[in-house]
């Protein structure tokens, strides 16, 4: 994992345990999304300096916009964040 549950809860300023499972799932989904956008494996992505910021951004966006997330806009934002580490070709 690029990011721990406690790190993410601190970033989100969540101090209760009710959403722990949701946040864990969002972390996993965000790691995979960021890895796909960067065209890297999750383990390769975890070694990149911007990976934690990108995953935190994705989790926060998905957590805060559960009902109305714009996944296209999220992908564009993540692509901008990860451009420096993104492989140009698979």
Q: In words, what does this structure look like?
A:
26% of the residues are buried. The model has no long low-confidence stretch (mean pLDDT 94). The protein is 63% helix and 0% strand. Helix 2 (20-38) crosses helix 4 (51-64). With 90 residues, it is mainly alpha-helical. It has helices spanning 5-12, 20-38, 42-45, 51-64, 71-82.
What pattern of helices and strands is seen along the backbone?
Answer: HHHHH
Using the alpha-carbon principal axes, give the shape: globular
- What is the rounded Rg? 13 Å
Put simply, the count of helices is: 5
Q: What's the story with the biggest beta sheet?
A: none
The separation of the N and C termini measures 23 Å
Relative helix content: 55-70%
Mean pLDDT: 94
Structural class, by secondary structure, is mainly alpha
Instruction: Estimate what percentage of residues fall within beta strands.
Output: under 5%
Low-confidence blocks of residues: none
Q: What is the tally of beta strands?
A: 0
Structural descriptors:
90 residues; mainly alpha
Short account of what is shown:
By secondary structure, the protein is mainly alpha-helical. Helices cover 63% and strands 0% of the residues.
């Amino acid at each position: 994992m690029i990011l721990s549950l406690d790190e993410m809860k601190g970033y989100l300023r969540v101090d209760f345990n009710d959403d722990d499972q949701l946040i864990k799932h969002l972390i996993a989904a965000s790691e995979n999304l960021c890895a796909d956008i960067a065209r890297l494996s999750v383990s390769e992505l975890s070694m990149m300096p911007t990976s934690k910021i990108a995953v935190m951004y994705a989790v926060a966006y998905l957590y805060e916009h559960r009902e109305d997330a714009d996944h296209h806009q999220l992908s564009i934002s993540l692509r901008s964040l990860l451009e420096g580490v993104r492989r140009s070709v698979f």
